[in-house]
Amino acid sequence: MRAGRLAAAGVPRLTRLERALRAERRARLRVARWRPGDPRDEAILRVERGVSVASSSDEGRSEERVAELFGQLPDREAREELVRIYQPLAEYLARKFSGRGEQVEDLVQVAMIGLLNAIDRFDPGREVQFPTYAAVTIIGELKRHFRDKGWAVRVPRRLQETGLRVSRAMGELWQELGRSPTVKELAARLDLQEEEILEAIEAMQAYSATSLEAPVGDEGPTHAELLTQDDESLELLEAWASIAPKLKELPARERRILYLR
User: Fold this and answer.
1) Domain residue limits at 128
2) Whole-angstrom Cα distance, residue 233 to residue 254?
C-alpha cells in the first residue's frame, strides 16, 4: 500500500539492492549513535552491524574461532559452544515475535530449535555469514510454529480428538434440529459425560483464541496478518546476504556510490 502511494506521487521505486543498502546504512547509523549504558542489547547491535555475534572482545571470541568450531563439527562440544555464542541472536528474534499470544519463553525454545538446525545445515563454504543464515532459519522456524504447531503446543491430544468429535457432532445436530445443540444432546450423541463435552469445548475456545485466524486483541489484526506483515529489518537479511559477496567485487568508488544512494 505504501509503495503504491509513493509510486503514484512520482517517487521512484527502490530496487532490492538499494533497499538492502539503505537498511544496512541505517543500522550502521544506529550503532554509531549507541553509547555505553544504552539499554539496547549488545547482541542486537552486533546483529544489526551484520557482524558475527561471536565478535565480542569481552569474551575473546572471533570469527576465526567460529570457523574453527564449524570445522570441528559434529563434535558435541563444538556444537554446544556455537549454541552458546549465538543464543543471544535466537533470543532477540524470539522477542521480535512476542505479543502474539505466546509466552516469550516458549518462543525462545522454538528459536533455539531453529538455531540448532542452522548450525547443523550451515555450509561454511558459502559466501554468507552464519548470523544471517541463522536468522533466516530461526525466523522460518518461528513462523512454522505459529502456522502449524499452535494447537499441539497447548491442547493435550485427548482433548484435540474429543474436540474434533464435538465439532462434527455440533454440525450434524444443527442440521437435524435446526438449532444449536445443548451440552446434554452432545453428550448423548457421543456417549460422553457432560463434563467431558464442556472440557473439550473450553479447549477448542482456548485454541481458537490463539489460532492464525483469531485477532490479537478485540479489534486487532489476526495472527496470520501479523506473520505476513513486512518487517524490513528481517526481510532484508536474506537480501543483504545475497548481495554482500557481489559488492566486494566492485571497485571501491562504485561501492561507495551504491552505499551512499
Assistant:
1) 14-145+235-260
2) 24
